C-alpha cells in the first residue's frame, strides 16, 4: 500500500520543517502552487534526498528556481519500489499535465495494418484496442503512412480492403475488380486457395521477407510459362518488378529487425524527438515530437522523460535505439520489460547498421527542428506585417475566423478557428450547429454564431481575440458589427475577407471596420498569406463540420425524405445497386435506369449526396 503525505504552506513554504519529517523511501512527489494547481510531478528512489535537492542554495537552474518560488504545498506518495514510482509518476503527468514537467502532448494510439481472420481475409487500417481476430502489423507513424502502404499492397497483392458489410452484400464485382486492385472474392471469382496465396505474400512482405516473396513469385511465373499461360506469367513478372522497385526505395534494408530509433536534439529553446519505426528490416516512416517544457533540458533529460510517457501503456519493441543514454536507463528498461512482458533493450548504437539508422533519424530530427524554428519566426513576421497593414495599435496575437457551410440551406454549420503566434490553436476551435433560420441565409447564420460565441465570452468563457476575421463581404461584416455593438465589444477590430470575382488567391477584397475603402495588400504580401491561411482553415473546418452533421442526419433518413421516392422505389434502388454506398456513387443516368426512377427524381437523389455548397 502506498501512503500519502501532505505539507501545506500558510505564508511561505517551510522546507526545513517539511524535509525533517520526510521519509527516505521511494515514491512520487507533487509540487502545488497557492491556487491548488500541481506544477510539477517527480519520482525518487529516496524521497528525502531528492526533494532536498530543490532547496539547496546553489546549483539550481533558472527554471527550477522559478518553480520552487511558487511552491505552496508538497504532497508525496510512498511506493514499494522505484519501478512502481516511475509508473505512478508517468500516470500523474499524463493526468495532471503539470506546466514544469516535460510533456508529450500527442498520446494517441498508433495505427496498424490488420489482416483479419476471415475465410477471405480483409486488409485494413486499424487504430485502438486489438480486439479483432487477425494479424497486426505496425505501428505506423501516421494514418497517411498506413494509407500509403495499403495503396502499395493493393497494387502488389489484390487482397480485399472493403468493409465487411459492403463485401457481404455484393451481387456483382465492384470498380476495384475492374481496375485490377481486387480479385472479387465477394462473388466467387477467385478460389480460396488462390486468394490465400495473395494473403500469404502480403504477410511475408509486411514481415520483411521480400526475397522469399520474389522467389515464390518467380517459381509461379516459371510454372505459368511452362503451361503456356503467358498472360498470367506477365502479370506475375510485373509484381516482381514492382517489388524490386519498392526495395530500392528503402534507404537501409536488412533481412530482419524490429525496433524503434529515437533521436533527440535541443536547440534555441526548443527540443525535438524523432521516432523512426523499423519493422521487418523496413523503415515504416518517422514522426517528430516537440515536447512541451523541454527547451532548456539536455538530450539525456529529454529522453528520460519522453521514453516512459511514450511507451508505457503501448506495445513496446524488443529494442529501442537512442541518440543519448537517458537518465535512469536501467530503471526505465526494467519497467518497460515488466509492463510489456518481454525483454526490452534500450541502448545507444556504437557501430554497424544501428549507427546508420541513428544518423538518418538525427538528420530528420535536425530538419524538423530547423523547420519548426523557421516557421515560428516567419509566422511572427506575418503577424507583425499584418499589424502594420491594418494600422493596429497592438500586435494581433490571437485571430479568430468565422465561416458558414451548408448544402442548399440544409444542416448549416458555422466554424470558428483560432490562430496565434504559435500557429493554429486547434484546442480552441469551435463548431456551431445553426438552427431556427431560413435555409441559406448566411447573414442570419453568421449573426447566430457570433452571438453565441461572444455571449459566452462576456460570461467569462474563453479568451478574447485581438482580431475578428470574417469570411465574407459587407453583409457578413455588418452582422458582426451589430453583434459586437450589442455585446459592448465594438472596440474589437473586424476584418472581412471576400474572394474576388474570379475567386483566385491574391485577388481577395479586404474590409476593415472603421476604415474608409478597401484594405489593399499585394498578392505576395506575407500578411495576406496569413489571412488566406486562416480563412482557408476556417473554410475546411466548416465544411468538415457540415458534412459530419449531414452524414449523421442521413444515417437513417437519406432516401426516406426524398419527395417522390416511396418504399417500393427505395427497395428497387437498393436492390439494383447492392446498397446505399453504391447509390451514393452512381450518376444521374445510372439512377434513372432503375424502374420507376425518372430523370428528375434521379437528379434529386444525386443532389442529396453531391449538392455541396
Automatic annotation (TrEMBL):
Residues 261-484 form the UvrC family homology region profile domain. The keyword Cytoplasm applies. It comes from the Bacteria. SMART domains: GIYc, HhH1. Interacts with UvrB in an incision complex. The UvrABC repair system catalyzes the recognition and processing of DNA lesions. UvrC both incises the 5' and 3' sides of the lesion. The N-terminal half is responsible for the 3' incision and the C-terminal half is responsible for the 5' incision. Belongs to the UvrC family. This is UvrABC system protein C. It comes from Methylophaga marina.
